[in-house]
Specification:
The complex is a heterodimer of chains A (194) and B (195). Chain A has 194 residues and is α+β, with helices and mostly antiparallel strands. Chain A has a domain of 121 residues: Jelly Rolls (Sandwich), CATH 2.60.120. Chain A contains nine helices and eight strands. Chain A has a four-stranded antiparallel β-sheet. Chain A has a four-stranded antiparallel β-sheet with strand order 2-7-4-5. In chain A, helix 8 packs across helix 9. Chain A is globular, with a radius of gyration of 18 Å. In chain B, strand 3 and strand 4 form a beta hairpin. Chain B is globular. Chain B contains six helices and four strands; from the N terminus they run βαααβααββα. In chain B, helix 1 runs parallel beside helix 6. Chain B has one domain: dinb family like domain (Four Helix Bundle (Hemerythrin (Met), subunit A)). Helix content of chain B is 57%, strand content 7%. The chains are: A alpha+beta (194), B mainly alpha (195). At the A-B interface, loops of A face strand 1 and helix 1 of B.
Chain lengths: 194, 195
């Protein structure tokens, strides 16, 4: 892993302070994985092997509905965590797919090494607390948006907060994430300012 | 009649579920795996061997077809199965975990195992072949996501009257696989009842 990649990794773990030796060990646990556009990083029905931190690219996490259509639950992008976390932690088959929507480079750590960080370095519990709090609050906020806002309001709220790299992925993924038809998304994109 | 739209993602999810189920079967003892529920029925390993034989008739054809198919960037991977092919697929597909129609297996698809001579090594070999074949199927489905699969057809193992585009062939093979997983469930249930 080069220095630039390591600096990106450290941003996600900024709550953790490690000595130089500990930092070397922490760094050694991660490997770089590369994916082409539209590669399936994780397949539903298989068990997630890694917890990821995204270096480059955009990924979508989705389930298939009864009709076999993709229902997008979320995205990951540069600097964010990624993976089918429930499958990773419980080591059970995933219900979700993780797909690279753009060519992607990701740092990956396996479960054994991930858990060893908590055992060896108590600071990771602080990180874990903050990390899961952020995830939970994000999911709650999304649930409120989905249940209370109109399609136009959801579109505006999302476009105002989402990073630019997410705005260039195929519209059908964004539409699905916002629980609207691609045609509605397209209409809002051409008519609504945000 | 409702149309049948298939997607590689849906097929991969279902195939993974079958692979996980067969991994669990590997833990059963030799007697459970090799004892048929009746003299005219198949045992679990015979079912798996039948699936190996059936897939073997498609393997090379799929390899060739995907090798020849031009690469393509697709926004959507869904494929609408044609009427005749849908009918053939639906005959295979179990409904609610139950096989709708039982049918006589053609001679060339029968598992030719010596029931008396089945030992752990032979059974282990059948499992290895199963995973080899069906991981190959998964690889074909994954490859098809980046290919134009609407150009060439594969002649089915049933005969030249039935031809499949790759997504239809995958769906047929998966439905056939699911049909026989339902049969394995029936074998296991019968064993539980008789125990």
């Amino acid at each position: 892993m080069d220095e630039e990649a390591y600096q990106k990794l450290k941003v996600l773990f900024s709550d953790v302070s490690l000595s130089q030796k500990e930092e070397e060990h922490f760094r050694s646990l991660w490997s770089i994985k590369k994916y082409n556009q539209y590669d399936l990083i994780t397949e539903a029905g298989s068990t997630e092997r890694y917890f990821y931190v995204v270096l480059t690219g955009v990924q979508a996490i989705y389930v298939l509905n009864e009709k076999g259509e993709k229902v997008v639950l979320g995205f990951s992008y540069s600097g964010s965590p990624s993976g089918a976390f429930d499958s990773f932690m419980l080591q059970k088959p995933s219900d979700t797919f993780l797909e690279a929507l753009k060519p992607s480079e990701m740092l990956a750590i396996n479960l054994q090494d991930y858990l060893s960080l908590f055992q060896k370095y108590p600071d990771f519990y602080i990180w874990g607390n903050n990390f899961f709090q952020t995830i939970l609050f994000g999911r709650l906020s999304r649930e409120v948006e989905l249940l209370t806002l109109s399609a136009e309001q959801r579109y505006k709220a999302f476009m105002q907060r989402c990073p630019d790299e997410l705005k260039v992925i195929p519209q059908k993924y964004l539409a699905s994430y916002l629980n609207m038809k691609p045609e509605t998304f397209s209409r809002l994109r051409s008519s609504v300012m945000y | 009649m409702a149309s049948l739209i298939v997607s590689p993602e849906n097929q991969i999810q279902r195939l993974n579920a079958v692979l996980a189920e067969v991994e669990q079967l590997q833990k059963l003892d030799l007697q459970t795996l090799s004892t048929p529920p009746g003299p005219k029925s198949w045992s679990i390993v015979e079912v798996l061997e039948h699936l190996n034989v059936a897939y073997g008739l498609y393997r090379q054809k799929l390899d060739q077809l995907l090798k020849d198919a031009p690469e393509i960037q697709k926004d959507s991977n869904t494929f609408k199965v044609r009427t005749w092919q849908k009918m053939i697929i639906n005959i295979q597909r179990p409904k609610g975990g139950v096989r709708k129609w039982k049918m006589k297996t053609l001679k060339r698809f029968e598992p030719l195992l010596n029931r008396q001579g089945l030992d752990e090594k032979t059974v282990a070999g059948i499992f290895i072949s199963f995973f080899d074949a069906h991981l190959h199927l998964k690889d074909c489905i994954l490859q098809s996501r980046g290919k134009d699969v609407s150009q060439q057809q594969v002649t089915s193992a049933i005969g030249p009257l039935v031809k499949f585009y790759p997504p239809e062939a995958f769906e047929f093979l998966l439905s056939h696989l699911e049909r026989h997983m339902a049969q394995i469930d029936e074998i296991l249930q019968k064993k539980e009842v008789s125990a």
